[in-house]
Amino acid sequence: MDFLHRNGVLIIQHLQKDYRAYYSFLNFMSNVGDPRNIFSIYFPLWFQLNQAVGTKMIWVAVVGDWFNLIFKWILFGHRPYWWVQETQIYPNHSSPCLEQFPTTCETGPGSPSGHAMGSSCVWYVMVTAALGHTISRMDKSFTTLHRLACGRGL
Ligand SMILES: O=P(O)(O)OC[C@H]1O[C@@H](O)[C@H](O)[C@@H](O)[C@@H]1O
């Protein structure tokens, strides 16, 4: 497990150092995808616009959270922010410094991340719904164009 945690810490450091310029964008994506928005914003909104997408959204929240809970019970993983303080693999107080954010200040087991799982589910439902909508509109436009072209004998 130490190997995994150590590589996780390296990835976090890489993201926090080399992608600092994208902080606002990544933070925005993370906040929009926050699963807590499902119940208060996305489900009521999507249910009005499209019942199928709204229902998918609520299922994603329930099943995704349930899976996350089960995986957390099984793995019971450390969070990188406290693992770096507790592990003995960094000699002489040379543990790396990881920046904390409000969403990372959570208690309880850290892997798999509920935020990462939930956000990817939210984004998956929203992106597939948007793509489905765009494709069906494009299909309609092509059909209309085809009919017009056929009608004019082109
Ligand atoms: O398991 P993680 O990654 O700490 O994320 C859990 C948290 O993720 C957040 O997105 C949710 O809003 C919180 O309600 C939840 O506790």
From TrEMBL:
Pfam family membership, one: PAP2
Pathway: Carbohydrate biosynthesis; gluconeogenesis
Annotated TM spans: none
Cellular location(s): Endoplasmic reticulum membrane
Superkingdom, taxonomy of origin: Eukaryota
Coiled-coil boundaries: none
GO biological process, any: gluconeogenesis
Entry's Gene Ontology molecular function annotations: glucose-6-phosphatase activity
Chief location bin: endoplasmic reticulum
GO cellular component: endoplasmic reticulum membrane
UniProt topology in membrane: Multi-pass membrane protein
Signal peptide: none
The enzyme's E.C. designation: 3.1.3.9
Record-annotated Phosphatidic acid phosphatase type 2/haloperoxidase domain positions: 56-133
Catalytic class of the enzyme: hydrolase
Keywords: Endoplasmic reticulum, Gluconeogenesis, Hydrolase, Membrane, Transmembrane, Transmembrane helix
Record carries keyword Secreted: no
PANTHER family: GLUCOSE-6-PHOSPHATASE, GLUCOSE-6-PHOSPHATASE 2
Similarity annotation: Belongs to the glucose-6-phosphatase family.
This protein's name: glucose-6-phosphatase
Organism: Phocoena sinus
